[in-house]
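Progress narrative, Year 2. Work on Anhydro-N-acetylmuramic acid kinase from Epilithonimonas bovis DSM 19482 advanced from sequence curation to structure prediction during this period.
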Amino acid sequence: MEHQVFFAIGLMSGTSLDGLDICYAQFIRNDDGWDFHILSSETIPYSADWEQSLRNATHLSSEELLQLNVDYGFFLGEKIQEFVTKYNIENPDLVASHGHTVFHQPNKKFTLQIGDGRAIKSKINTTVIYDFRSQDVILGGNGAPLVPIGDEYLFSEFDACLNLGGFSNISLKRNGKRIAFDIVPVNIILNYLAKRLGEKYDKDGDFAKSGSIDTNLLEQLNHLEFYQEKAPKSLGTEWINQHIVPLIKDQKPENLLATFTEHAALQIAQILEDYKVRNVLVSGGGAYNSYLIERIKAKTKTEIHIPTNEIIEYKEALIFAFMGVLRFLNLNNVLSSATGSLQDHSSGLIAD
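Result:
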């Protein structure tokens, strides 16, 4: 096979609302598989208005949500254009946008990531691929996690890949197939609690370290039904609102941070032990939470590998760019062994 080279921009907006991640990368396809190089990357913080709009999206009327879907698409298109100009990017092959998740209820066969790809397309002169999750949900899958396709082709030297974002998820090989599933909420709760203390996040886990663990609350959290369910499985904001928020209303924030950090570390370490993972690549904002990493290390024999900041921060945006390339080529970009759908498939709507 002759080398095939693609240049793609990936966009990711996570449930923790840290900002919009943009990653421009080169992907090379050859006889041995795929290689990649991150060429430019940036996180664009949301303004207070945008953060509020996205956070409150679940409470909007149908008409208001349709308006936000288009407005956010225009916003994404504008930010891509600024990014392209800033980094002197010429003629990328495509833009792949995850969008921002508002609803995710695969048991009811629907999921919604806003940010209309046609609105993005109206601002930039390149192919836009978007809405990567809906098809998988319609095919009986969880619509998540999707990044295992990138773990399979771009990070195969590790037994497992662990993402510590709004939710933590893991992908690993099991009986020759890559499986993946959400483990436990992480930054979506830790950031929520840190804001009670006037900070956007718990830097280095210092607040958690200063607090005391509430053993009764820890036991309640560890006994939530989700943790007993078999993979594949996924978490969403609705689950948080139903099962977590009622438990963490009134206590001192430092103690809640200590307790929830311990809870997350316990659940993650248990998975690493259960699946006998020898080494794991850790990415996502939680990789910077040194106290959380310390607590995970204390509970498992698995070698924890913290990569470069570029991979920590932009791995998901990188993989959505890669998923866009696979969709562009009409190759499978979603693994049924990870999501539980009927079959591997090529997912994503194309605005070209």
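The chain has a mean pLDDT of 95. The radius of gyration is 19 Å.
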